Amino acid sequence: MTDQTPTWQELLDTAVEERTPPAFRAALNGLRDDGLSYDRLVVIANGIVGGKEVPGFEGMGNGPSKGTWLNALTTKGRKASQLPDWKYVELLVVAYCKHHDLGGETRDALVIRWADGYTVCGGRPRPQYRRSTATPAVATPAARRKRVSYILGAAATVVALAASSAYFFWEPDPKPPLSVDDVSFLGLSTGDYVFPSTVKLSSSQVDKLKNEDYGHGLKFEEWFHKNSGVPSHFRTISLTVSGRSDKQLRITNIDLLKENCTAPLTGTLFLNGGTNGGESKTKPLFFNLDDRLPEPTDENGEPYFARKSITLKNGESETIAAFVSANERSCGFTFRFTVVVPGREPVKQEISDGGKPFRLTAPAGGEEGHPYNRYRAMYVGGVAAPVGAGIVPADPSTYNGDSQTLAVP
Which residue in 8, 124, 296, 332 is a FRET match for 264, CA 20 to 30 A apart? Predict the structure, then answer.
């Protein structure tokens, strides 16, 4: 497995697939980043606007400043939710071609390709570049698959552009390209759990849990999972996948699909006092379940797939540690991988918890001085319990984290 920064061609393919302004902006910034610094872009764009050798920019007066370009190409914040003005898209494509000494025919073809992507993402380019987003009628399958290849600069980057269509036509793939080899849970033996309903354990059941006797050879986290316990605040899910395509595949995104979101669960809390855990050899991705559309971020909080992808050759595997957190709601969720294989239609593969959604609940915050009083029942164990106690019942209306308040109701 290797991390690989997507090319602008790959980013534009992703934008056409996702049909969102942020994805289009990421692709456009990728084009700028392909050998064209902001300072150099300002110089070349000023020359294009001032020289008037290329039609379409007569009304701009002067070329955009560096700050204007930064705003037009930003992929973060409020601006990222809207497409940049078409004039900046067209000017950047023309500047790119001029910087790489590409001919007029190649330049026109690239402008058309970017106009098609802009249209699919909800924009309206100049009238001469506007085309229907409906798939054009083509006489034969052979004509539908026809491509025109352009060699761009010394890097010999091939741009696959359909001669008469805004879309690529793919060959069907008989099997999913990604193999899901293992789904397991990291760090849950130290985390907190909540049961949706009130659970009253007998003294013998408490003794068994104290002695780590979970029955039928179950482990701690397996016991909760079997009995419908839901992790609270965070959960870490290890996803091991491998490539099974003859060609190297790319994972270009991992969505978190939420469902059945409710208020935090308030049944029975098992407070174990642990923290999030994982393994150093895994690739960590972070998801916030409270976001409207949770997207994976890296350790610095930056969107992971905005600048990277995960590549896998046939038989090559990767383990992803998905750190999912929640502070507001209780939700079910499923992972959805976007997998791209050259020459194939992008595939969406979902990973669930044995056919059911994973679940996570936010903590049910209580009143000041009584942080657990919204729960109907409560047990304290792990590092949260007194040394040697194992697991003890507590009164959620009075327990505040101090062992002196562990009086059983």
Answer: 296
